[in-house]
User: What shape does this take?
Amino acid sequence: MCKKVLCLMTFVLLLGLVSNASAALDAYWALEDGSGSTAADTSGNGHDATLVNYPSWTTGAPDGASPSGALEFYGDADGIGGYGYAAGYSGPLGNSAITSMAWIKAPTPTEVDGNGDLVYDHSRDILSWGTDVGWDVGRWELTLDWGSLFLGMAGGNVNYYGVKLADGQWHHVAAVLPDKVDATIGDVKLYIDGLEVAASYGQPQKVVNLHGPDPNTLNDVYIGWYAEGKSTSPWLGEIDDVRIYDSELTTAEIQAAAGVPEPATVALLGLGGLALLRRRKK
Assistant: This one.
């Protein structure tokens, strides 16, 4: 019985990988390099990321594709704790469809306020690009704001403060701009651990128009920082399996990347099989 469950689990994961491979993968930093100052882009599009200020290669990450490597960042001011950037790659721009995702692990805060509540950091950046053009929704800045998932978009935002993700555990996060004409901030979807959450919106009526290269700003795609918005903070913790698609992934495809089986698969595996599948993400 155990062998049957494991074989079925393998089949389900392979289906997930095939599904994700069929989408328009624009950049994929698996972060399995293990050493050196370059994070290879395994999408085949040549968007390798240069690592700055010595983020550390580590092991034990739970990404859906290859569960061994990750990058650890130290969150110091002005990117001193490390970040990565893909020179010459500006990410999906304009009003085109986008799916961005990553595995993240942020530490639980140690500081408490006068009421005994944990003090969470403001704007710890995961993945970002675009320019800070508030009237035109010019950037895509996936971050943890006060410990919760937040997408800064210049002139508006998408957020979900219903759960704190800075808890010392691995979480899969994703943000999706649908494939539709004049998609707005209010059309963006947020996912946590494969599940769409009931996001809140700032300026939901604004049409998204991500801005590209500008000789006066820094517009490359950044991992662990948003270079143009230097009032924000670099990432503190670990990041793994960072992906950018220039298409709208379905919920099923996002769940496959997050290692979450569909309901029918849960029924086939049973509770024991599901527990085994989820255990690899601890």
Summary: The helical segments are 2-22, 251-257, 263-279. The first helix runs from residue 2 to 22.
